[in-house]
Amino acid sequence: MDHNCYVEDLIYRLAINNSVCLDWEKLRAAYPDYSKKDSFRIGYYDTKQSRRYVCKTGRFLKKIAPTMSDRNVELISADINNELFAEVSTNIEVLRGEDILEAYKNCVGGGSCMTYSEAIKYLQIYGDNPKFCGLSVATVRKGNHTHTARALYWNAFEVLRGNSPTRQENDVTACTYGDRVYYQSSEARVALKEWQKNNCDYGYHFDSETPILMVPFFKVPKFWPYCDSFRSISPTEKYMSVYSFDNTYYAESTEGYLCGYAEDYVECYGCENNFNEDLMTRIDGNYYCEDCVDEYFVRCHDCNNYVDTDDSIKVSRWVSNWDATFICRHIYYYCSSCYDELCSEGSVDECTVCGDSTFTDKMQNGKCLNCVEEIVNRKVTQPTELPF
How far is CA 385 from CA 324, 375, 378, 382, in A? Predict the structure, then answer.
């Protein structure tokens, strides 16, 4: 028999769930246990006879709670047998991309400091980097119960000591890393840790020492998750590492920022998120993140100042190739001041056909090359006198 407090706790919990109150001391004195080889039977100690007996689960419940109704005996016995003797099936899968975020939302592997609604956006770096980051999930089904465990699964690079973590030439080796396991049951935890040992080169729970590992990411995220292993972050070089290099910050906060990095934060005027000031662009006295600069502004081709996209003036330059077999369009953006100056110099005018602003050195009789070509092609298909 496998005796432990788990059986006592299980019986007591299931009784409470069915609104049945058991005598805890009497249950403890019976030292209940079970054996997989003796299905649907509970071993117990009879204090009066000073010996151990084995009986069916329902009969044992009647012994420790004689007043329990037959209906409750049936319900609780079924739950106990299902928990102790049901067949166990295990499935392991690795999620990537947005499926990782969904798993956290659904509390796969139990709750987390990163599973509350506001923190889900902190995990976006996992969803944006499916090539390097996955989430290994163990699902254990036992009777009517399903338990899960989760752990981040990294496709990392082993960096030789003394070398820069950004170099990926001959001094790095691809490897896999199994991160810390979070679980709902011991069965799920054991299953996932066993999978890590068979499928990962290094791991959070491994006895061997972890070398210097780094994981690149494609884009600087707006928020950062709490990390167990790859918590040393370089936003400028775009990598995460298990080792602290110079000018790295730490993903040890559950509030969506990097420790040691937040004191230099300023708020983006566009999206109202906080970013390190070194990564921001100041325009007209306001700070903007990289994404908002790309979304809301263009640079004037002459003065190189940022101009609101809606206020900028687009000027086309149609250029033909060397044998005039095709033409292509180059677009330049200008602020109003630089555009007015171009117009006063006669360098830019509006096409009399399409109305687009166009450089005059590439116009013919007030028309841009694109309109000229369209008119010529139209005249060719319907032969008449050409307009020029």
Answer: 21, 11, 11, 10
